Amino acid sequence: MALDKLKEIRTKESLTYQEVADQVGISKEYYWMIENGKRRLTYELAVKISNVFKSSPDYIFLDNELTRSEQKQAI
Q: Is the pTM of this model over 0.90?
């Protein structure tokens, strides 16, 4: 699942929820909800989060095993 990748990247970078949230400009709680699938995010927010990890939104948030039409529905 794509959100598992987000958590994996964050922990690999040794960043806390708070540190990522601060860099993105949202609350720690909001970031936690995104990472745990409780909140959906805009493309703009996906870009901001991916910039923290020096990656692309597609790499982090899209599941490579999904077809293109399934990926569009997942966002």
A: no
